[in-house]
Amino acid sequence: MAKKTESSQFQKLQQQLQKSFTIIQQSVKSWQEFLIKCKPELSSIDNLGEQYICCKEAPEYMIPMLNNLPDLKDKLLYKITTEINMKVEDIQLEMKCFKNVCDRVTKQCDYSMDLYRKHADTIHMNEITERTATFPSIVDMLEWIQNTERLFLQQYPLYKLWVDKSFTIIQQSVKSWQESLIKCKPELSSIDNLGEQYICCKEAPEYMIPMLNNLPDLKDKLLVTKQCDYSMDLYSKHADTIHMNEITERTATCPSMADMLEWIQDTERLLLQQYPLYKLWIDKKTLVSLRF
Amino acid sequence: MNLTGSARKLKDTAVDIHNLAQKWTKYNNEGSSIVSSVANVKLQNVEKTDDDTDQSQEFPKEKMSLELESLCTELTELIQKMEKLALKFEAIVNMCKGLNELESYQMKQENKEGSKVLFQTWTLEDFESTIQELYSMYKTELQVKKSVLQNICHTEHKNVLMFYVAAWVHQPYIEDRSKLLLESMLIETGHK
Fold first, then answer.
1. How close, in Å, is residue A208 to chain B by CA atoms?
2. Taking CA atoms, what residue in B is nearest to A83?
3. What per-residue confidence (pLDDT) applies to B17?
């Protein structure tokens, strides 16, 4: 240790790493704050989504006021959709804070790596790989810092895509997809699977909210992959018999089947990318937090 | 500047309409919580009848009808207040019509055509059409509220209950345009 303290480059590197980790710690904090801030918005989106589905599914013959006010249902659905969009916009604004966090982490990673590269030739390999009881090795710390950066950089676009696509609409669309499939092709025998798909997909977006705590559930959510495969198989099986117009046609209340297939594929891709990331995050997080 | 005649009347009217809209929003919020409570009571009952045995059903049903009755009385009183607001609104619309007719009569007497700009850009006709449009939104909305009151207690279907609650809370007939109209009227009359 006495030898090491003599090496000023080594010390500089150590100081830089300490500084970076402190900043990363703050960044993680603001990221968590961002998630907490979004929670009420997300739950109101969820609530509005439920209202939308209930209103859409309410049997019209049981609502006598629709006789006098035939446009009530459409107007109501429009109002709810407008409100959902407003909430999604709020979250999109909050995403800016997430972007700042990402930038800060990237900057710190760059500083540390640059400093390391600058002195890589002069610092002895033993020095940078040696661990003590109270200090992890420089190599370890550099690896952690790079992993953290990578995680943030991968998370940000994913979140952005997720918010842009608005998960509530995914929820609704899977349901409408189920309906339109029943309407279009009554002979399809795998309709039972669709019910399962709906439940799986419906539950999938919710895990985005409580984040890290829900890791054990993540694996179950990957069932979506299977469901996505079912849907794509079903589509390719009947692709020749269903007319293109049917697949691409949108109505005011129901998105097109092509849209929905794209969404379910996006959902699957997101989940598949998220799972290993989260797992890595949790594994590393315990380690990193020990060193802070 | 001391305003007189139609301009004075319209400036005061703009404030009246603004106050009416605010009171309406207040009543609507009060009503939202009542309607949600009604829906909760009904939903609880639907769940209970699914779970409970036949013997224990009598008491909750009685309790439910008492609760519902008091909630409905509150809601009826609230709707009566809203109806009064709508009546005031109607009086304002009639007054505007009167002013417009008076102006066109005066113009005829003076052998002039078109109508005068009272404040910055709007004529009396513009005011009349704006107020009329706002009134028709509130009038239809009142109809929705009355229908909700009439029907909400007589359904057991969850989605239909949610439909009524949403129809009350979101006010589908009071369009976003109403805010624009009201704001433009306040700006036009120099209140903002």
1. 26
2. B170
3. 96
State pLDDT tens for residues B119-157. 999 999 999 999 999 999 999 999 999 999 999 998 888
CA distance, residue A66 to nearest chain B CA (Å)? 10
B152: closest CA of chain A, how far (Å): 10
Cα of A75 to nearest chain B Cα, Å: 5
Does the pLDDT at position B104 exceed 80? yes
Contact at 8 Å (CB) between A97 and A30? yes
Contacts of B173 in chain A (CB under 8 A): 72, 75
Taking a C-beta distance cutoff of 8 angstroms, is the pair A35, A142 a contact? no
Question: Which pLDDT band, with edges at 50, 70 and 90, does A165 fall under?
Answer: low
pLDDT digits (tens, 9 = 90+) for A173-190: 445 544 544 444 443 333
Residue of A nearest to B144 (CA): A65
CB-CB neighbors (< 8 A) of A76 in chain B: 163, 166-167, 170, 172
Residues with Cβ < 8 Å from B80, sequence gap 6 or more? none
Nearest residue in A to B173, CA atom: A75
A58 and B163: CB-CB below 8 Å? yes
Question: Looking at per-residue confidence, does A87 or B13 come out higher?
Answer: B13
CA distance A176 to A172: 6
| Residue of higher predicted confidence among A230 and A212 | A230
49-68 in chain A: CB under 8 A from chain B = 50-51, 54-55, 57-59, 62-65, 68
Residue A273, pLDDT score: 67
Residue A24 has pLDDT above 60, yes or no: yes
Distances (CA, A) of A256 to A174, A232, A290, B181: 11, 15, 50, 36
Q: What is the mean predicted confidence (pLDDT) over A125-140?
A: 86
Which residue in the block uniquely carries the two structure tokens 């990331």? A277
Q: What is the rounded CA–CA span in Å between residue A73 and residue A80?
A: 11
Which among A57, A61, A73 is the top mutation candidate for probing chain B, defined by the most B β-carbons within 10 Å of its own β-carbon?
A57
**How many A/B residue pairs have CB atoms within 8 Å?**
63
> Which amino acid makes up residue A238?
H
Summarize pLDDT for A99-110 with one digit per residue, the tens.
Answer: 888 899 999 999
Contact at 8 Å (CB) between A149 and A24? Answer: no
* Residue closest to A143 by CA, chosen among A128, A125, A122, A123: A128
Query: Cβ contacts of residue A257 below 8 Å, gap of 6+?
Result: A177, A180, A181, A184, A235, A242, A246, A247, A248
